Amino acid sequence: MTAVTRTALTLGLAFLYAPIAVLVAYSFNASNLVTVWGGFSLRWYAALFSDAPLIASALVSLEVAILASLIATILGTLAALAFERHGRFRGRALFTGLVYGPMVMPEVMIGLSLLLTFIGIGLDRGIATIVIAHATFCTGFVAVVVSARLRGMDRTLEEAAADLGAGPWRVLATITLPLLAPAILAGGLLAFTLSLDDLVIASFVSGPGATTLPMRLYSQVRLGVNPEINAASTLLVGLITLAVLAASWLTARRGGAGG
Amino acid sequence: MGDPAPHLDTAGLTLRGLTKRFGTHLAVDGIDLALSEGEFFCLLGPSGCGKSTLLRMIAGFEPPSAGTIRLGGQDITGLPPHRRPVNMMFQSYALFPHMSVAANIGYGLKGRPRAEAAARVDGLLRLVRLDGLGDRRPETLSGGQRQRVALARALAREPGLLLLDEPLGALDRGLREETQGELRAVQRRLRTGFVVVTHDPEEAMMLADRIGVMERGRLVQVGPPAELYRRPASRYVAGLLGDVNLIPGRLGPASPDGTRAVVTVHGTVRATDGGSSPAEGAEVVVAVRPESVRLGAEGLPATVLDATFLGDRVRRGLRLPDGSALRASAPPGDGPEPGAATRLSFAPADAVILPA
Amino acid sequence: MAAPRPDRIAARLVRLPPLLWLCAFFLLPFAITLKISLSEPATAIPPYLPVLDWQGGLDGWSSFLEALNFTNYLTLARDDLYQAATLGSLAYAGAATALLVLLGTPIAYALARAPRRWQPVLVALVVVPFWTSFLIRIYAWIAILKQEGLANLVLLKLGVIAHPLVILNTDAAVMIGLTYAYLPFMVLPLYAVMDRLDPSLREAAADLGASPARIFWTVTLPLSLPGIAAGAALCFVPMVGEFVIPDLLGGSETLMLGRVLWSEFFSNRDWPLAAAVAVLLLAIVVGPVVLFRESLRGGEDTP
């Protein structure tokens, strides 16, 4: 590596990580003034754990993320199978647009249009509507991850199973799905994170009593910097870092074993 | 091309103790080699023997761990690739896909007057018989045409030495033979030194003035193709350059005509000392090419196992009494049928004694 | 007529659930939004007119169609606020995309040129912030950019400035936020393209006498243009509709469509106008989306 590329990389990574580092550092600041270092303290973490509304909204987020990622994983995997294993069918272009459209659609537009729909069909807004909305926009992401794996998969394995007398369902259950499992898991994890992270869509489609964590944080952030949020953010960052490390460790191990 | 001037100002390439280490792996191990000017030299060896690494060190893409590279009396060991009077033709050709054929060929001519560069590109296009294709994109050309663009591009800067990494590796079999002839013709016209890396012994023998055989990072034998074929210095070289029979035995005394007796389990044969001059009584092998094996009334007893008709010759599989197998190759015609008992012999000059 | 083969039935069963779900929760909502954008606001619940009377049959439909109007779109076209928001969305997203190309290209190039065994780690380092909460990453900048924030503190201490700068709630802050949040989206597709470039192309250029700088400009960069285009599309499309960044880092004069839609909906409760803004937003991004659909899809499977 030359000095130029090393500098570019160092500066780029510093830019990406400095704000997060600042946030983490301030979460341990005893003072509630951002510019004053009042010594190391865990008081904001203590405050955090006694903040009942915040914890309640974290639980709502978790519930939504689990349900939405489950639905999105099922729908996305089915969509990927339709794309990669059942080739041409009538309305394929429309189907492609339907699956991948929500990924690139502006969030405000997805949120608004779903809300108008829920009102139109008289569905009460709450956790269920957030789950539906999140499952809808996450399906495409799961489909992308699973399709990529399906494309890279040796088709002859499935053909060999069929040749040995397995019907389409048995091929799916005994060959395709087991081989796809890591990709399905990765897609589900992606959907889970995206759901956990969403503010805009949830703000539109949620109802009273269904405040997600990003919504709660957002309403506090609008009031300014708050050390308690720093603590909450630090916990989230730590959790996600652990999850990413675990995921890359898993994929590295699989890659090393199976290629 | 206007003036394919011979490079009188540059003498050949000289390598001294050239070594490349990757971690603990010794990829190239102390190579000494001197090429004369305008020589067509082939580095031959299986993949992983270090021949490509050696080529990349000469081109400047890998810094040597030790040793020197001199070209035309100048030490170029520390020069970056873009300052070396050496050019390379890549195995994949590495044609710039976003540039026309002419722009590819002219890429190395930056800094020369426009008209001169254009004239040179035209000359090179004619040299490789691609006149009129200068505006095409590389992806619209056939494999053989791409190969010729790569050759023309590498020659554009009139290098003192041209390095070619498996230049025919990406071509079909039929095209290979045709292109081998062309490559040889271009080299003869330009008198530029060529160093070709290849794993194909036939290709090496067809192209090269001299071949250097590499094995595990070392240059094990250097010589003209015929010499390497007829007088290999080791079982490895003997086997690499073509089919060979190896008959184990114990070395007998030297005789005044330069041949030596070798006592095998089937009887004594005479063969030429391959140069390793082991002591009397040493375990050796006698290497004989199948076409040097004569079948008839004298020599070692053998049974014909099978006969395969190959057009210009017939190959016979033979079995010696101890069960070991040999091959004999002869022009079609009379010869023992499968199942027949026969005897095999060979001229001592056609058999080489090699360390076991 | 022969019975369909079992694999044909399987194929249909496989695509039916996602098809039904997405028709119900993506296609239908879009149609409803389009319809509402052609209605007039009302104070009723739902606060728009006309409401389609499902029981009205053909008469219901025709009276419904007659009542449709383009008032909302005319408002969008004529009103200074919406003109400014449209231009603002395009300008912020466009400028930030340009900035991202300038910043992302050297970073992606450095990644691709880093030692092979370090590359997975370095790529993971670029990806991890993408997984970290978007809201939190933007929020982190508030503490840095505000008047008594870290940036001013450092600059004052270093003596670069004599008085604290106003950065938060300005265009500069919005640009910083957009660049920061979308940098991985620019770097990853670009890195993917640069990483796939045959290294012998660079070597061939060096062999033909090109300096490292000339190699970059004549070989690496031209061959990386598809990656730059993909990265630009991947950043530009969501940035046009961005809400959080202008809302948290921008000032009251930072006008972007996502933010205008939000306030039309939540503050002014003008649903038809909000729907019209949504349709306009969609019209802006549909071009790049269709052009770059392959890379918009592919860019996401890198993490």
From TrEMBL, chain A:
Q: How does it sit in the membrane?
A: Multi-pass membrane protein
Give the Pfam families listed for this entry: BPD_transp_1 (PF00528)
Question: Known PROSITE patterns for this protein?
Answer: ABC_TM1 (PS50928)
Any stretches that span the bilayer, and where are they? Answer: 54-81, 93-121, 127-150, 171-193, 229-250
Primary localization class, coarse: membrane
Which ranges carry the ABC transmembrane type-1 domain?
Answer: 58-248
- Name the coiled-coil region(s): none
- Gene3D superfamilies in UniProt: MetI-like (1.10.3720.10)
Look up keyword Nucleotide-binding and say if it applies.
Answer: no
InterPro entries attached to this UniProt entry:
Bact_Polyamine_Transport, MetI-like, MetI-like_sf
Keyword annotations from UniProtKB, A to Z: Cell membrane, Membrane, Transmembrane, Transmembrane helix, Transport
Where is it localised? Cell membrane
The UniProt entry, under PANTHER family, shows: PUTRESCINE TRANSPORT SYSTEM PERMEASE PROTEIN POTI
Similarity comment text for this entry: Belongs to the binding-protein-dependent transport system permease family. CysTW subfamily.
Supply the name of the protein: Putrescine transport system permease protein
Species for this entry? Methylobacterium aerolatum
UniProtKB/TrEMBL annotation, chain B:
Please name the Pfam families in this protein's record.
Answer: ABC_tran, TOBE_2
Keyword check for ATP-binding = yes
ABC transporter domain residues = 13-241
Gene Ontology molecular function, alphabetical: ATP binding
Chain positions covered by the region annotation Disordered: 323-342
Xref: SUPFAM superfamilies? MOP-like, P-loop containing nucleoside triphosphate hydrolases
Question: Keywords in UniProt for this one?
Answer: ATP-binding, Nucleotide-binding, Transport
Record keywords: Nucleotide-binding included?
A: yes
Question: PROSITE patterns of this UniProt entry?
Answer: ABC_TRANSPORTER_1, ABC_TRANSPORTER_2
Q: In what ranges is there compositional bias, type Low complexity?
A: 328-341
Q: Family per UniProt? A: Belongs to the ABC transporter superfamily.
**Protein name as annotated:** Putrescine transport system ATP-binding protein
Species of the source: Methylobacterium aerolatum
TrEMBL record, chain C:
UniProt domain ABC transmembrane type-1: residue ranges: 86-292
Q: Where in the cell is it found?
A: Cell membrane
The record's family statement is: Belongs to the binding-protein-dependent transport system permease family. CysTW subfamily.
Regions crossing the membrane? 90-109, 121-144, 172-194, 215-240, 271-292
Q: What is this protein called?
A: Putrescine transport system permease protein
Q: Which PANTHER family match?
A: INNER MEMBRANE ABC TRANSPORTER PERMEASE PROTEIN YDCU-RELATED-RELATED (PTHR42929), PUTRESCINE TRANSPORT SYSTEM PERMEASE PROTEIN POTH (PTHR42929:SF3)
Q: So which domain of life are we looking at?
A: Bacteria
Q: How does it sit in the membrane?
A: Multi-pass membrane protein
Phylogenetic lineage: Bacteria, Pseudomonadati, Pseudomonadota, Alphaproteobacteria, Hyphomicrobiales
- Membrane as a keyword? yes
- Identify the species of origin: Methylobacterium aerolatum
> InterPro entries annotated for this entry?
MetI-like (IPR000515), MetI-like_sf (IPR035906)
Keyword annotations for this protein?
A: Cell membrane, Membrane, Transmembrane, Transmembrane helix, Transport
- UniProt-listed SUPFAM superfamilies: MetI-like
